[in-house]
Amino acid sequence: MPNKIVRLTTRDVRFPTSDHLDGSDATNKDPDYSAAYITLETEKGDRGYGLIFTIGRGNDICCKTVEAMSHLVIGKDFDDIRTDIGGYYNELRSDSQIRWLGPEKGIVHMAAGAIVNAVWDMWGRAEGKPVWRLLSKMDPEEFVNCADLRYVEDVLTRDEALAIVERNIATRDRRIRYLEDHGYPAYTISAGWLGYDDEKIRRLCREAVQQGFSHIKLKVGANVDDDIRRLRNIRETVGNDVILMVDANQAWEVNEAIEWMRRLAPYKPWFIEEPTSPDDIMGHRKIKEGIGEIRVATGEHCANRILFKQFIASDAIDVVQIDACRLAGLNEILTVFLLAAKFGKPVCPHAGGVGLCEYVQHLSMIDYVMISGEIGERVIEFADHLHEHFEDPCVVRKGAYLAPTAPGFSVRMREQSVADYEYPGGSQWRARVGRTGG
Amino acid sequence: MPNKIVRLTTRDVRFPTSDHLDGSDATNKDPDYSAAYITLETEKGDRGYGLIFTIGRGNDICCKTVEAMSHLVIGKDFDDIRTDIGGYYNELRSDSQIRWLGPEKGIVHMAAGAIVNAVWDMWGRAEGKPVWRLLSKMDPEEFVNCADLRYVEDVLTRDEALAIVERNIATRDRRIRYLEDHGYPAYTISAGWLGYDDEKIRRLCREAVQQGFSHIKLKVGANVDDDIRRLRNIRETVGNDVILMVDANQAWEVNEAIEWMRRLAPYKPWFIEEPTSPDDIMGHRKIKEGIGEIRVATGEHCANRILFKQFIASDAIDVVQIDACRLAGLNEILTVFLLAAKFGKPVCPHAGGVGLCEYVQHLSMIDYVMISGEIGERVIEFADHLHEHFEDPCVVRKGAYLAPTAPGFSVRMREQSVADYEYPGGSQWRARVGRTGG
């Protein structure tokens, strides 16, 4: 008895976050955090939910692109997909005509990711398991079959990937229990947006430490004297034991990044995130060589596993960041985790936005149980906003993401939120349209 | 008196080329060559035409993306743009919200390119000059202001860019006359599509040599024994003086490319094009080091100048290919030409498709007059199809592109062609729809 996917719907959901400069940084000055939100439904009534996170304009294009891929979705049998989700993922990311528009990057890649993530969600719901638990019970062969090894075999063979997973199997139950008891470490970005004034940042940093966070991140890159003053303020407020990170959101040329970071070095940032173009592997390596102890992090705008392969294998970065919505879904993210594990680099996922925290908690937990086998320096980004729009929002307590227990991938939105914030027709937007130029 | 842009229209135009496997290769198995075709119009009646080349499904998404950028187009003053087209280009490629969907890659980047190219077309028409002549009369400062040096300054400073152009100024008129007399060398791909049988390839190769072509390119990568047989056939047919190139269209893993090309080496290909993922700078360098005399070429899928910077500066490739529609238009392409000139690498543009030959003839001529100052090994790809749909099609005679003389960028389509092939409503498509899954 087949169980074909018979419906694919998309909704353009946007939140007017630019009103208060939440999310503002040196490059993304006025984001309206948005979700191209998709729902799959099978003939037997299984449902799966997925989303692409965007920052406003263009969210409609993401919806249209998902719809343009409906020939790869409608009529597919859910049970067949579960038998070979790696194969299904391959179809999604390599349609013979749509591929031209990437290839494997930008909107078409994000759309493929949202669809396969919705399938993972549906699978979790069908088995009554959160997605991180679904993958944590796979055997190594089945697990590696989910990962996308195309174009990375010169650096990571299938046998190497298998060996990485196999070494973890005997001890995985211990790590599952650890996550259920302690959660996974988080760091907060809610304190340090570029648009916030000094007093607000001081207050938020104090509150973050009181809430149990050991890491705080600050946006930098607009003005070096402002950055120095803010970092000094934060160090005065929270002391030297808190781990500080700084994020330039691609503001600098390569040489400029080196000069700027040398001036921020006295405040001991752990890493500088996105110092320059996210496509510049060799530029990041040069920056890393030029700034001494400070680590280099990037990845939230890294387009695919092939670019990650080069960043990781050439030692161009120290800390690997991933975005749950930029890569082609969980399947490609597994590849990045496997590459990072081979080269001993920590993965600290990008989150915030809308739905990203919900997604990435599963990803880091899968990494810990099945791939890296350790937490070490790893932390997941956390921003404390927009979670109220989800049915099963992530929960962060004492600086840690609690392990999700509800079935699925945690990004199902509340129907009322979708109705209120749908763009441009939702009640929250009707009075505003025109303002954003959207 | 301002002269604002008041209209931006898009048309989804597709040609059913998959019927005869024209354009078939190891990755692109069934292309329907298509154009997301755009028209700009000012209040005074100036018009400009641009297009994004795609291979079918997703062409509608490109149209929608151009429309989603209309807030960057409508109301802009054409004269202001001409005063600072570099600044206008920057606005197009870095909208603070849309940028998230690239950044600077994929559909949003292609859309920015189509718009700025339409502006260049409008400018050429307004001055009664083909675009290559428009840029050939600029002074070095004005010319370099058009190029996008963001994120490449660690490898190419503005002063270096200026010096490259300045050294050519005294002799440019001689090169303009050369182009008007002799045109620019072309090579043909019309002979070697993967879907063609041996007899057809033999016949087409013979005809190509008779038509004056000194270079012929063959698609490879599906089956190594087939590739060897076809290359032997071609060598038997046209002899050893014709320069043969082979194109794998991303078919291989890195190590596989090295092994495969060692088997094709006896037939003396000049270069192997797209041996693996177009994002794999380090992979290409490894391939280059592994295949001896055979050159490595890539670029038709290279997403932006930042990736090109790395391919060129790290000596990962020998021959730089550009696509007129993948980069963000002429402004970003100038950067690639400048980078290639600094490192002494020939640029051989990708063409074929629909409209690409029309576009790239201008680009190579600008490079010759203003940047590289030489032709040397450079050749422009040529495919002999679909030119009949353009008002001012490119003309190739005796293996050379004749210098365009009509005003503009040569991609204005015939209104009848647009009407006949508009998808899905045009007369040529009404009977077919459903077949392509589009």
Q: What this model shows, in words?
A:
The structure is a homodimer of 438-residue chains. By secondary structure, chain A is of the alpha/beta class. The first copy, chain A, has a domain at 167-416: TIM Barrel. Helices cover 42% and strands 14% of the residues of chain A. In chain A, the strands form three sheets. In chain A, strands 5-6-7-8-9 form a five-stranded parallel sheet. In chain A, strands 10-4-12-11 form a four-stranded mixed sheet, with helices on one face. A three-stranded antiparallel sheet of chain A has the order 1-2-3. In chain A, α8 runs antiparallel to α15 (356-371) and α11 packs parallel to α12. The longest helix of chain A is centred in the N-terminal third of the chain and has 22 residues, at 106-127. The model of chain A has no long low-confidence stretch (mean pLDDT 95).
Task: Give a quick precis of the structure.
Two copies of one chain form a homodimer. By secondary structure, chain A is α/β, with parallel strands linked by helices.
> What's the end-to-end separation of chain A, in Å?
45 Å
CATH class designation of the domain at 167-416 in chain A: Alpha Beta
Strand tally of chain A, please?
A: 12
Task: Label the structural class of chain A.
Answer: alpha/beta
The greatest interface here is: A-B, 63 and 63 residues
CATH names the topology of the domain at 167-416 in chain A as TIM Barrel
Q: CATH architecture of the domain at 167-416 in chain A, please?
A: Alpha-Beta Barrel
Question: How would you describe the oligomerization state of the chains in this entry?
Answer: homodimer
Rg of chain A computed from alpha carbons, rounded to a whole number of angstroms: 21 Å
Shape of chain A: globular
